[in-house]
Amino acid sequence: MIEVWGRRDSSNVQAVMWCIAELNLPYKRYDVGHRFGGNDTPEFLAMNPNGRIPVFRDGDSEPLWESGAINRYLASAYGSDEFWPKDPRARAQVDKWAEWAKVTFTPAFSLPIFWQLVRTPPSKRDPVAIREAVARLDPILDIAEAQLSRHKFLAGEAFTLADVQFGHLLFRYFDIDIERKERPGLQRYYKTLQERPAFREHAMVDYGALRAFD
């Protein structure tokens, strides 16, 4: 049985849970982190010395942490050849977009924009810094727009791990109060993701409990 430690409204947990659901795998998830606590106990730190979520275990295997590593394991162990190709060259084409989402898009969005607008009290927000962060995000999303104007999904015509790594943050991107450029390809793609039950269940998660107030 797959086990996941991490609260439902953590974006990194959402990426893992969405991947698990797309692969139709049974699981147990435990609420840990933020208001639930539990990520500083000796038992948890024995699994992940960083004290961060998610933590993942498949049966009696060694615990895994880092959502990207967890999802690559899931894709390798349980994914179809379409979702995570066995051919190294084809797999690398998927992986480059998955990595781009993790190391380029996510850092440009999560901390400087989402965290500032949602997890920072209004009196401590910096509107200028937020606008500048949105401006820095624009050329990154233009790259996605160019790709999605030519292809149904991020890495081509098939739904792959790259879509999980990128798409799990799009509910937050389209839901928060920021100025967004018209990007028909990205908007069409987001609607396509919303048609997937696993996306609706695990990525379109209310984040109200994360909001900071004065």
TrEMBL record:
UniProt entry tagged with the keyword Transferase: yes
SUPFAM superfamilies per UniProt: GST C-terminal domain-like, Thioredoxin-like
UniProt xrefs under InterPro entries: Glutathione-S-Trfase_C-like, Glutathione-S-Trfase_C_sf, Glutathione_S-Trfase, Glutathione_S-Trfase_N, GST_C, Thioredoxin-like_sf
UniProt key word Transferase: yes
CDD domains given in the database record: GST_N_2
Keywords: Transferase
GO molecular function per UniProt: transferase activity
Domain of life: Eukaryota
UniProt record similarity statement: Belongs to the GST superfamily.
Protein name: Glutathione S-transferase
Source organism of this protein record: Aspergillus terreus
